Amino acid sequence: MMAEIQHPLPNASWETRGYWEGAGRGEIVLQRCRSCGTVQHKPRGVCATCLSGDIEHFVASGRGTVYTFTVTNQNMAKGFAEACPYVMAYVTLEEGPRVLTNIVGCDPDTVIIGMKVTADFATQERDDGEAFAVPRFTPV
Amino acid sequence: MSIAGRFAIAGVYEHPSRFSPDKSEFQIMAECAKGALDDAGLQLSDVDGLFAASMTMGAMGIIDLAEYLNLKPDYLDGTNIGGSSFVAHVIHASAAINAGLCEVALVLYGSTAASSSMAIGTGGRGGAGPAESFISPYGMTTVGSYALYAQLHMNRYGTTSEQLAEIAVAARHHASMNPNAKMRQPITVDDVMSSRVISTPLHLLDCCIISDGGGAVIVTSLERARDLAKKPVIVLGAGEAAVHQEIGSPDLLTIAAKQSGAKAFGRAGLTPAEMDFAMLYDSFTITVLATLENLGFCQPGEGGDFVSGGRIKLGGALPLNLDGGGLSSNHPGMRGIFLVIEATKQLRGEGDVRQVQGARLACVHGTGGTIGDKHSGATLILGVE
Ligand SMILES: [Zn+2]
Questions:
Q1: What CATH architecture is B132-208+233-383?
Q2: Is the pTM of this model over 0.80?
Q3: Which H or E element spans position A23?
Q4: Which chain A positions have a beta carbon within 8 Å of B147's beta carbon?
Q5: Which of B142, B146, B151, B371 has the highest number of chain A CBs within 10 A, making it the mutation to test binding with A?
Q6: Cβ within 8 Å, pair B252-A7
Q7: Could you read off the pLDDT of A69-116 as tens digits, one per residue?
Q8: Of the candidates B163, B157, B147, which has an alpha carbon nearest to the alpha carbon of residue B202?
Q9: Are A5 and B139 inside 8 Å of each other by CB?
Q10: What's the CATH architecture for B7-116+212-225?
């Protein structure tokens, strides 16, 4: 068994804070424009469809489908080199947006496009007082 | 007024070295500038427009370069949209000359990617900032980004690793005829297939090499180019585009080439079928296949068949990357400038043993960034009188 991925610590701006705080609570948090209704990701301070600043956050289902993936055998970066082979993937969320992520909790060779997955959160030790976590996905 | 047909490439030079531990980026650029100026029959003092980007030039790097060359140009463009930058610089130079802002544009690239040991393909991508934090926790690599694309293409269309390997085999075949190419020993589909898998489904030999290198291109008006040393290579059409992950779920298989290529061919009044050869950025084999489909050389999903059966080799229906490309000749971090240089040499009939006989029209497409995430595309249609 390879080592677990040591995910680099995410950092938030005021625009992206809702997403990472949500992850810290074990939730996938997305944005919806109150003006035109568009659900958007990555988070922004404005709606990228109508430029309204009237944005709300909501808790998404955390369920999605593997859009595409790759089993990474070589990544020289610390935290990943030790974890190869690991699965990097795009997951399309039920609410529409697509997120880059890792598929964990299964043999990399069993991951396929179209696989149903659900969010799984890696909490991290941080010394900056933030309670963020990194969303990954695992087979349903 | 369109820039189509009124501006030309008057001088080119590719640095012959693939490993230059004793040189700086700017020294390589300066050596290339001399080569291209000599090629055109111009002097450094004729240059009034300076265009460049590199792996390490920062926000005001273009001024540092002007200082190094002791140039005081009337027009500066340090646009960096990744490896396609230099294809874009040719477009921007044509526009600047068209606007009367400069007359002789010098486009430069230099890199010590190999001798300074940059881990371009399999180093971790993404920094620690808020925007990068949606990427960096997940172990994205450059290879990995293209692998995400390749996996989806294979799943949707049944494209095979053997078909991708054909692209690497053709590149090496062309490199075997290029005395400056870094990798010249011919390879087979089996060689590619048996090389180790870096990031599924991409093998080591699906990936570009890493070298040092540099190049220079001189752009001026067609009128002025006609009075210079070499046959002008005319900018017939041009287009640029950027593709990113948008806010929803765009089709990953649609890359920037779709938009930039449609503009370029439309402005030239030409079609892909009319091209005698093409120079397509080959960071990875899948990049070429994606670009062929998105430029309209074939339909989506047909790229695997298109690259098979010798069609993309010298003598085939659409020879690609006659210098050996980034897969075999050189890939010093960014390689858009070499696409323009080889296309120019071929269109002048200077291709030597790898010359595409009777070549009069070429498509050049640069991709910058990664097609599995966000990237730029710049397309040029070039021709001779
Ligand atoms: Zn809106």
A1: 3-Layer(aba) Sandwich (3.40)
A2: yes
A3: helix A17-24
A4: 70, 72
A5: B151
A6: no
A7: 999 999 999 899 999 999 999 999 999 999 999 999 999 999 999 999
A8: B147
A9: yes
A10: 3-Layer(aba) Sandwich (3.40)
